[in-house]
Amino acid sequence: MYVLELFSGFECMSNAFREKGHHCFTVDWDLRFDSNLHKDISKLTLEDLPNEFRTPDVVFCGTDCTTYSVAAISHHRRKNPITGNLDPISEKAKKADMMNRHVKELLKIMNPKIVIWENPVGGLRKMDFMQGYIRNTTTYCQYGFSYRKATDFFSNIDLKLKPPCKNGNSCHEKAPRGSKSGIQRIKDPALKSVYPPDLCRHIVNMCEEYITNKDKGIKKGQFMEQMTIFDLMDNGDLFKPKESTDWKWRFADYPHEKNGIKVFSCFACGGGSTMGYKLAGCDVLGCCEIDKTMNDIYIKNHHPKYNYLMDIRDFNKMPDNEIPEELFNLDILDGSPPCTTFSMAGDREDSWGKKKKFREGQKEQTLDDLSFVFIDTIKKLRPKVVIMENVEGLLLGEAWSYVQKIYKGFIDAGYRLNHWLLKGEKMGVPQTRHRVFFIAIRNDLNIDPSNIDMYFNYKPIPFGEIRSGEGRPLSPDTQAYKYIKLATPKDKRVIDVLARLGEKERCFGQKIAWNENVLQTIPANLDYTCGDTLKSISNADVIHAQTFPEDYNFGEFTFDRISYVCGMSVPPIMIKRIVQRLIDEKVFDYKNTESNT
Predict the structure, then answer these.
(1) Is a pLDDT exceeding 50 seen at residue 530?
(2) Residues 513, 517: Cα–Cα separation, whole Å
(3) Which of 509, 467, 478 is nearest to 492 (CA)?
(4) Per DSSP, what are the bridge partners of residue 151?
(5) Domains of the chain as residue ranges with CATH
(6) How far apart are CA 540 and CA 548, in angstroms?
(7) pTM of structure
(8) Which of 340, 525, 332, 491 minimizes the C-alpha distance to 415?
């Protein structure tokens, strides 16, 4: 197994896994500890981890207990009388919550088989972000320590820990508050965080047992080898991953019958979202786009009824009587505010609040506030449903404060809001594009979006299934050529090769495509080389990976133009899936009532 231990300290848990031959990687901010990586965990990203630990089997988090401990909680937190959550009142508590939420979002991306959190019995069990786990409580004296120390373990599996003893039992030494016995005799806070070795070994055994049972295959003859567990279950087809074939399409494949859902798109770019809505049977009335080149491409392909080539701030300032009545009766307002400032590949915090000239638009502007400008558009048009998309980096680190403000903005505007981190490869998109989707529903519709099922289970599509044609050969004079020649299918980027060779990291943006792997995210500045031919992926590969139609008019059929338009757009199939799910969940059933009046 591959085990990632966060807040690792003395690496008690990792050492127990290593005893059984498992691979471990440890992260802690404290330089006193001999961790594999020293980093503020609130700023930890997948790129900080070795490739094999970006999708670990087990993640163990012994998060800081200071602001959640019974002894100090009154200095850091107040109970929310409505939610029951222990809201932070100190800066230290706010930082602790932000860090733990950041870890939760990382876990969504890593998708480990087992997640385990540890904290002494206290306030962590009351926090909203810890709900949904199985909680086991034990005391350290049950695993050989002389002191009691009641501790909570939160996991997605039942760890079956020994139940806690009671105060005063003979299994531990007596330690009245203020005494110098029990754990109180230990002065170094770091030493108080040491886990009993027998407890660690028990947890390792439970993880091994769970993963062994989970990974067991069915091997009874050739026929059985071709079956899956879903074939043996009642109603197994409901859970079996679906095959996706609609990634390859043309404009003629738009459905002839429309469902009557009216849509307007903001920050429209090449119209990726627009095509997704049309594939789902919606009527897209038009768009607002700041970039003239991109807007011209949009018009050529989508022929909007209403087109606004302008900054959305200027659209918001337009008098209502200059805006068509149709736009005040929208079913869906769509928006993908430019994500450069939140992307993990960008400057992030260093660019927040600063004005720049971006390729998305020629005028100087800030980008990190465009979600709130879009909320002003929502207040103006009052659509029934809003779908807003952004990069997964919006959920990580200090960017979480923006998410909180987004929720407040929607609530103040009269909408119920929920967000999901959706993964393209699980939605029938041939790339691992992960995006945050916010779905808001106007209060008067009385629909809670948090009750909507946004789980998708499509079979991942490897590059070999969409591969078509050849791209440009990589120059033998480049460093990338030298290292990609040494790459194996386990190397997804040039820096993975460099890490394996023990060389200094460089060539950060250069990705490697292999037939058996799903392509990584298609960015606007694409640098993707096929590992077996040392040629770039082809124009057709980019179009298919982004699920654009094969007859899309890019204006210029060059690799740079195609990758830029595709990389800046939402994959149409992602939007198609979302809208179809909203229809299935009866979000738009109000239209049946409207048609009967």
Answers:
(1) yes
(2) 7
(3) 509
(4) 120, 138
(5) 2-215 (3.40.50.150), 251-460+574-595 (3.40.50.150), 463-567 (no CATH)
(6) 10
(7) 0.63
(8) 332
